[in-house]
């Protein structure tokens, strides 16, 4: 019967870390985060609230109302960004990306308020929905990274070649 695995400590994780901390995975996540940030900027600063509303109506399941789609899209808008940022910059604390996502959500609504020519309706509720999604995205990336680190350390301890991507 194999011995139970010991919990991994910070020293174990440091010993098996990738030199320089930049892997193919983190490089790809950084590029995708930058691209997705551009998409978020376009979505937030699009000058026609009516066009944004029509676009949102075309997304999502047919059985959701426009209001339900709006809530759902606000909840998930920043999750991919904070997910990718957390994977792309693994040395930064995961929660810092969640907080950054909250700041982006707040900034988006502030921009819509400060720029009346955008013909958009800023809402504090949107800030809360965006913030919830930002926390979910960063937390999911942190969990995925922890699972990957555990797998690398375990395979290395067994004498197998760790799969560093």
Keywords:
single chain; 165 residues; mainly alpha; 7 helices; elongated
Structure description:
The chain is built from 7 helices and no strands. It has helices at residues 10-15, 24-45, 49-58, 66-76, 79-88, 94-114, 124-157. 69% of the residues lie in helices and 0% in strands. Helix 2 runs antiparallel to helix 5 (79-88) and helix 6 packs antiparallel against helix 7. The radius of gyration is 20 Å and the shape is elongated. It is mainly alpha-helical and 165 residues long.
What's the SSE blueprint?
Blueprint (H helix, E strand, L loop, with lengths): L9 H6 L8 H22 L3 H10 L7 H11 L2 H10 L5 H21 L9 H34 L8
Helix pairs in contact: 2-5, 4-7, 5-6, 5-7, 6-7
Give a short summary of the structure.
The chain is mainly alpha-helical.
- Uncertain segments: 10-15
What would the principal axes of the Cα set say about the shape? elongated
Biggest β-sheet strands, sense, barrel:
none
- Structural class designation: mainly alpha
Give average pLDDT, whole number: 83
Distance between the termini: 32 Å
Helical content, roughly?
55-70%
Number of strands: 0
């Amino acid at each position: 019967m194999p011995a139970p695995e010991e919990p991994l400590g910070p020293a174990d994780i440091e010993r098996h870390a990738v030199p320089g901390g930049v892997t193919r995975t983190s490089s790809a996540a950084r590029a995708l985060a930058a691209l997705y940030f551009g998409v978020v900027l376009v979505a937030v600063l699009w000058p026609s609230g009516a066009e944004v509303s029509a676009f949102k109506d075309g997304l999502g399941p047919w059985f959701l109302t426009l209001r339900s789609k709006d809530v759902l899209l606000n909840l998930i808008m920043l999750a991919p960004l904070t997910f990718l940022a957390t994977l792309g910059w693994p040395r930064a604390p995961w929660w810092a990306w969640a907080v950054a996502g909250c700041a982006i959500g707040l900034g988006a609504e502030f921009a819509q308020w400060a720029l009346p020519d955008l013909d958009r309706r800023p809402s504090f509720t949107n800030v809360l929905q965006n913030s919830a999604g930002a926390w979910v995205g960063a937390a999911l990336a942190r969990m995925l990274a922890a699972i990957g680190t555990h797998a690398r350390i375990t395979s290395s301890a067994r004498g197998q070649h760790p799969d560093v991507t």
